[in-house]
Amino acid sequence: MLKLWNTLHRALEEFKPIKGKNVGLYTCGPTVYNPATIGNLRTYVFEDILKRTLVSLGYKVHHVMNITDVGHLVGDGDSGEDKVEKEAAKQGKDAWDIAKMYERMFDKDMMRLNIITPVGKDRPHATGYIKQQIALVEKLEDKGLTYRISDGIYFDTTKFDGYGKLSGQRIGDKQAGIRIELNREKKHPTDFALWKFSPADAVRQMEWNSPWGRGFPGWHVECSAMAEELLGQPFDIHCGGVDHIAVHHENEIAQSEAAYGKPLANYWVHGEFLLVDGGRMGKSEGNAYLLDDLIAKKFDPLAYRFYCLGTHYRSKLNFTWEGLEGAQNALRKLQVEARRLPSAKAATKGEWIEKFTSAMSDDLNSSEALAVVWEMLKSKTDEKEKASNLLAMDEVLGLGLAGILGKPIQAPGEIVAIAEERQLARESKDWKKSDELRDKIAAKGWLIEDGKNGGYDLQPLS
Ligand code: AMP
Ligand code: ZN
């Protein structure tokens, strides 16, 4: 039985899909105007873990993730420039090329983190769904839920009874902590744009005709329109980072539920933020690290994935370089184990699989699941069984162990010679020399791990 924390009811709930073993999953994808930060990437890792867990439990997951290539305005509100167009102007490039370039970068990050992302029609682009977004706004207009002001068509949030149910705030409460820009023409601060008009004095690169004039869709409309078309409404699980709860997801719910008279999604699951040095991560703080920054410091991208797994997705994770180093060392140890074990087929049942599954089923308790992995590896379980278990567990953890299981690496003679010298130092309890030789081995790109019976293992560092 899978239990998930449902933001909508602020409760841990047993997951019950709408259609048997089929699960409809929608995750809000990237706005493609800059490279993803490791904060953004934490959210995608969490969503990947959720999806892999569902698959391991025998569900067939239909995952849709959008690409926001238009309509997301600076400051997340309804005024300010379009993020993609702004970046295009800054770089002197075409907005469509900017969107494509950052989507490619996003894919590269996904691959390096072993995140399985949707492809083809399950990865819709906002610019590819203009017709559906206009149709949704028309539906809301027909129901008398919209109004027009000088810069666009807006949703009147007071006309949707359930407004605020996701974040637990009433309309009047929405002030502190939420960036709502001042637009004096809006009837209520929580009202939001459904369709924005192109500025009268400028030509946008991305703009379309609509019943209300030339312009572009508001940010929230895309997810509502795409989810309805690709997954149907209601679908099972909707995910994103916690920053989306109060505005983006609240607005998705308002539009979709008001338009179709039924829930948008049954379970709303949100990932907590990654902090850096205990505080917000941002460009102005100079700590909006990218995966490339980690790689430049010789970290394996999968060490970052491992790092994320060590903390529950609903807890804040404070990123530190030392923490990442610890994760990398632990991952290396796991890789050493995987190489040492015989090759095998993934197990489907057994005591350890049950333990592991029960941790993951408890609201994706990945740190507990990792503890089960270590416990299993240290146990007296038969080596072949260990290999089978590890393989099955890695299908959920996604640490790339399948590719190296049962494939020991032969270190070059020069490295083995230093390792042997270090063995002698250890035998004579010369720890200082032993440490020096370990550093010498590391400087040559190898990691030496001491084995249980006085032996050692050598593993390349990258
Ligand atoms: P964006 O491209 O800005 O829409 O963000 C992509 C995803 O990253 C969204 O699901 C956000 O909620 C999430 N996100 C943004 N900042 C962080 C952070 N510091 N930690 C974790 N997730 C984040
Ligand atoms: Zn969304």
List the helices and strands and how they pair.
Blueprint: E1 3-6, E2 11-14, E3 22-27, H1 38-56, E4 60-65, H2 83-91, H3 95-112, H4 130-142, E5 146-149, E6 152-155, E7 192-197, E8 215-217, H5 219-231, E9 235-241, H6 245-260, E10 265-271, E11 274-276, H7 291-296, H8 301-309, E12 317-319, H9 321-340, H10 351-361, H11 366-378, H12 383-397, H13 413-427, H14 431-443, E13 446-450, E14 456-460
Parallel strand pairs: 3-4, 3-9, 9-10, 11-12
Antiparallel strand pairs: 1-2, 5-6, 6-7, 7-8, 13-14
Bound molecules: adenosine monophosphate and zinc ion (ZN).
Bound molecules: adenosine monophosphate, zinc ion
| Named CATH topology of the largest domain | Rossmann fold
Oligomer: single chain
Distance between the amino and carboxyl termini: 38 Å
Number of helices: 14
Task: Explain what you see.
- The chain is an alpha/beta fold and 462 residues long.
- The chain has three domains: 3-271, HUPs (Rossmann fold), CATH 3.40.50.620; 275-403, Orthogonal Bundle (Isoleucyl-tRNA Synthetase, Domain 1); 413-460.
- The chain has 14 helices and 14 strands.
- The strands form five sheets. A four-stranded parallel sheet has the order 4-3-9-10, sandwiched between helices. The chain has a four-stranded antiparallel sheet with strand order 5-6-7-8. It has a two-stranded antiparallel sheet with strand order 1-2.
- Strand 1 and strand 2 (11-14) form a beta hairpin.
- Helix 1 (38-56) crosses helix 12 (383-397), helix 4 (130-142) packs across helix 6 and helix 5 (219-231) packs across helix 6.
- It is elongated.
- The protein starts with a strand and ends with a strand.
- The model has no long low-confidence stretch (mean pLDDT 92).
- Adenosine monophosphate is lined by residues 28, 30-31, 39-40, 42-43, 240-241, 243-244, 271, 273-274, 281.
